[in-house]
Design goal:
Number of helices: 5
Order of helices and strands: EHEHEHEHEH
Distance between the termini: 11 Å
Oligomer: single chain
Shape: globular
Amino acid sequence: MATILLAEDEAVLRMLIGDTLEDEGHDLDIACDGEEALQKIGQNEYDLIILDYMMPKLTGYDVLTQVKQMPEKEAVKILILSAKSQHTEQEKMRAAGADDFMPKPFSPSDLVRKVEEMLA
């Protein structure tokens, strides 16, 4: 069982992803925007952080770059979810330190598979 932070501003998607990961036995924490995500990351330990690329207040990219500047968080894996699936966006995320990228839309089974791969 892993501890995962999901930062997603769309309520329906938050619920779908949350239910899916909890059904797989993971301990899930939720943030509704980038600021809340960064606050939770500073206060808690996570095995995986799932960031939506486009969020209010701070984007997933903003959160990613700030987390990568925290030496105590260097081991945490980060997955970016985005409807912006162009190759240049993926490269930008990877260059900033994202471990993987998943384009929206995606199926719950694909997400579970990706999460399990990243936690292995």
